[in-house]
Design brief:
Oligomer: single chain
Order of helices and strands: HHHHHHHHHHHHH
Strand content: under 5%
Radius of gyration: 24 Å
Structural class: mainly alpha
Length: about 290
């Protein structure tokens, strides 16, 4: 009887979280998959079942392939650099450093800033002729002004810099927590055996950080596909979709062009890509992750 009562109490405690999970995660996902096989309802005309027509349109859509390639380069530019910087910053502020509390706050500060505020700050940096970057270029080196956000060759790279600046401090917190959980006796034992700092990091410290690296890398992949605020404020996807990413294209399709059926199809493709990448990361890091 007592065991049954504990089982009931357990489900009662879980029920609010399960309700929110199914209402705001699982049900919308199933609804999106279902909507991808229907046309867009307009006015009094209801949505009609069209089968795989939206998926055929997606395969023939040049803008989709362009934003998908953009997203690939954006992920390739942001994920390894932001994770590497986060690890370096965590190692630095975890050491016996004067003013390390101030350094931690400074590194983490970009994370707590609103996304719109971050976009406007960097928009001021990138403004041609008047922005901070052009002021330094022309004042110190005598170089002509450059429209970094207005050029197809540099717009995506400019967004990559903003994303790295925003995310590295967030990932640093996880690495810092993992570093503080590692027993100090390991470093003392390595010092007694004559192991150098780099050898200790490569053979002891980094393997113990692999669970955190797996967690951080999955979050970094998700973040690389969900950027929309910076694009909306800084470039609006231009010029000529050079800085448009997959989620921004979904937003435009659904709320600007009001093609909800096709937007649902794009969303399904993005969910499939994220699932494949997440599963691939688990298989890639599985043998290298040490949980104890």
């Amino acid at each position: 009887m007592i065991h049954k009562r504990e089982w009931v109490y357990g489900w009662l405690f879980l029920s609010p979280a399960l309700l929110f999970l199914f209402t705001f995660t699982h049900f919308p996902a199933v609804k999106t998959i279902f909507s991808s096989f229907f046309s867009t309802a307009k006015g009094r005309r209801p949505a009609e079942f069209i089968g795989l027509e939206n998926y055929q349109t997606l395969v023939q859509d040049p803008v989709f392939w362009k934003v998908l390639v953009n997203n690939f380069w954006f992920a390739l530019g942001t994920i390894p650099i932001s994770i590497g910087l986060a690890l370096m910053m965590a190692l630095w502020v975890n050491s016996r450093l004067n003013g390390r509390t101030l350094s931690r706050v400074a590194f983490f500060a970009p994370t707590v800033l609103p996304l719109i505020a971050v976009a406007n700050i960097w928009l001021f940096f990138y403004t041609p002729g008047f922005g901070l970057i052009d002021q330094l270029r022309t004042g110190l080196f005598g170089l002509p002004p450059m429209n970094l956000l207005g050029s197809p060759d540099t717009a995506l790279s400019a967004l990559i810099v903003v994303a790295i600046w925003k995310e590295a401090g967030f990932f640093m917190i996880f690495y810092l927590a993992a570093l503080q959980a590692i027993p100090p006796v390991l470093r003392e034992a390595a010092s007694i055996e004559g192991a150098g700092s780099f050898y200790f990091f490569r053979k002891v410290l980094f393997p113990l950080l692999m669970p955190t690296t797996l967690f951080v890398s999955i979050n970094a992949v998700i973040n690389s596909f969900r950027l929309i605020d910076h694009i909306f404020i800084m470039t609006d996807g231009g010029p000529d979709n050079a800085s448009s990413l997959l989620l921004f294209y979904i937003y435009e399709t659904a709320f600007k062009y009001w093609q909800t059926g096709y937007a649902a199809t794009l969303t399904v493709v993005m969910l499939i890509l994220l699932s494949i990448l997440a599963i691939g990361q688990f298989f890639l890091f599985d043998r290298k992750v040490h949980y104890q």
